[in-house]
Fold:
Amino acid sequence: MTASATAATGAATDYDVIIVGAGMSGLYLIHRLRELGFTVRCYEAGDGVGGTWYWNRYPGCRFDSESWAYGYSWSQELLEEWNWSEHFAAQPETERYLNHVADKFDLRRDIQLSTRVAGARYDAATNTWTVETAHGEQATARYFVTAVGVLSAPYTPDIPGRDDFQGLALHTAEWPKEPIDFSARRIAVIGSGATAVQLITEVGKNVGHMTVFQRTPNYCLPLGNSPIGDEEMARIKQDYPEIFRKCRESFGAFPYNFDPRSAFDVSDEERRRIYEEMYAEPGFRIWLGNFFDILTDRRANDTMAEFVREKIRGRVDDPETARKLTPTDYPFGTKRVPLESGYFETFNRANVELVDLNEEPIERITANGVKTSSREYAVDTIVYATGFDAVTGALVRMDIRGEDGQALADKWADGPRTYLGLTTAGFPNMFIVVGPQNAASFCNVPRCIEQNVEWVTDCIAWLRDRGVARIAARPESEQAWVEHCEALINATLLPETDSWFMGANIPGKKRVFLNYAGGAMEYRQQCDDAAQAGYAGFALT
Ligand code: NAP
Structure:
């Protein structure tokens, strides 16, 4: 029982705050809440910390944000002692980093591993949340905070015959800890998103035979990874204040921002020169540091789309394979752009084959492999790189019930509704870190995670300090936020394209933009304005 909860806000609870998830958000939440004097319990489904970086251990998994702009910024000591080995570090290094953070800040004592949260319900009479785990264990808290990540509910398509397959079948986000030797295997990869692009490139280096089943080609761009030596790391450490300032002042919370010019403010030759320069640069600058109208004007977008198409054709030897790998029917950058390190060249290998599912759709999975409308592909391994029920999936898979027993899954059946992307009306004292309609799911995530966590923890401390027992988003504030989010996205080209951004990758899911398209800076401002006005838009009791 906690004195702070009883004295200030009524009924006693086991903890002040219960958190779901011990990934990047959960770890920082624990640290910050403890510093503010709250008692915390964090439930984590995995048997280790790290969230995304715990589950996604498929070959080739690595950052597509710069390592040094990705790590936590809130501990000077941590910044000084941690050395990144590469500009875009691989998954094992990030998992090590997050374990180091958990140890350094003694976070493990408040984390219960191997414990999936089955549901949580709000009790209006006591103004408490009761959280139940899949093992049937229950605990109560004043506040319920989800920190379940954006891409944490893996999606495996329900292809007929899926369970008939006699070989090894894996989803990339449920990869085993033991490495798999693919050198003598015949493998099928289904999917061609950012995950598949990394996996195919890595596995392709040493595989018996690989067949890639592609439904939609992607505008993949070079990652430009390289090692970081001691001297460069020392310079990066000196530059941290400037790096994080740039991130704070940019649309995507990256250390670069959109070019304020239109693609047509420069001559054709100059535009070409700029595209070439950006193509040679590491990271996402070519997507989120490009001309501002690339994502809002179809003609501007076409100039970039055609540039990428040319690059693909120039890198793939077989013209027919190149044609299949070249996107033509949706605008550049309206799906998350996969960054690659030799992806297209992988298809120049004799033992790598591409199947275009638009020409020969999958009919079923058989005991021996994948059967399309043309033939059966015999394999011993099927890798489903088929993505996630993004942003809302991990939330609605839990049985979360607010006032009057309303289920979150029912409330969001026609698309998520939030206020500030952090709360939802009818679910008092619940906060959603990195949830829908939140800039975090559309930016260099840790920068936005820090903003989310600081806002939520500041709010909880403010409520305690003023003896406020209950905070609830007002339905009219939520309505205004939903409309604000819709207006922002409708000014861009993104709704034209089916992607997980739009919830369009999951059959039956409402097709609606799941993120916040106003940029991380504007989002931070909106959150800060509400807080400074005494949590405007909320009912405080
Ligand atoms: P994704 O982008 O949703 O891609 C899933 C792939 O599976 C798509 O190619 C999709 O085709 C295909 N697919 C789905 N259902 C299918 C079916 N029934 N038949 C055939 N193909 C099917 O998922 P992801 O690649 O896992 O990436 C998700 C996000 O994770 C990324 O956008 C990115 O934000 C993040 N990520 C980040 C990194 C990093 O470097 N940090 C690495 C990997 C992923 P369609 O396109 O036709 O739907």
Q: What stands out?
A: Residues 408 and 528 are 26 Å apart (CA to CA). The longest helix spans residues 445-465. The first strand starts at residue 15 and ends at 20. The two ends are 22 Å apart (CA to CA).
